[in-house]
Amino acid sequence: MTTTIADRPKDSALLIDDETCRLFRAGAELAGQKWTAAVLLAMASGAERFSDIRGLVDGVSDRILSARLKDLEHQKLLARHVVPTTPVQVRYTLTPQGRELIAILQPLVSWGVRWKLQPSE
């Protein structure tokens, strides 16, 4: 049985085992991938179509955006819906997991803006 930090007594909450550390790293790496946060935040702003997302994410190429959307779908952070019209339309929506990640990212973005952090490249 896997326990979460919330399941542990308060005095042991800071003790992070290997599994918890591995899961944290996986989540941080996913959220930290280039364009991931920007795409998710664009979707949180109401963008559903590829062109809407591209319009809100400054500097992303079509190829990279397409790859990021596929990856986010694979990670179950967004769902892809094909609308059978002519021409076919594709819409993307945040899943509950995606909305939960947005709730985590928004304070991080605010913190970065507040402290005027400079990206390292």
Question: Would you identify the CATH architecture?
Answer: Orthogonal Bundle
Class by SSE composition: mainly alpha
Which ranges are low-confidence, i.e. pLDDT below 50, for 5 or more consecutive residues? none
Give the termini distance in whole angstroms.
Answer: 41 Å
The general outline is globular
Mean pLDDT score, rounded?
88
> CATH superfamily assignment?
Winged helix-like DNA-binding domain superfamily/Winged helix DNA-binding domain
Q: Compute the CA-based radius of gyration.
A: 17 Å
H-E order? HHHHEEH
How much helical structure, as a percent, in the residues? 40-55%
How many distinct beta strands? 2
CATH domain topology: Arc Repressor Mutant, subunit A
Q: Number of DSSP helices?
A: 5
| CATH secondary-structure class | Mainly Alpha
Residue share in β-strands: 5-15%
Q: Major sheet, described briefly?
A: 2 strands, antiparallel
Provide a descriptive summary of the structure in words.
The chain is mainly alpha-helical and 121 residues long. It has one domain (17-111): Winged helix-like DNA-binding domain superfamily/Winged helix DNA-binding domain (Arc Repressor Mutant, subunit A). Helices cover 52% and strands 10% of the residues. It is built from five helices and two strands. It has a two-stranded antiparallel ribbon. Helix 2 crosses helix 3 and helix 2 packs across helix 5 (96-114). The longest helix has 19 residues, at 96-114. It is globular and about 55 Å long.
Task: Provide a quick synopsis of the model.
The chain is mostly helical and 121 residues long. Helix content is 52%, strand content 10%.
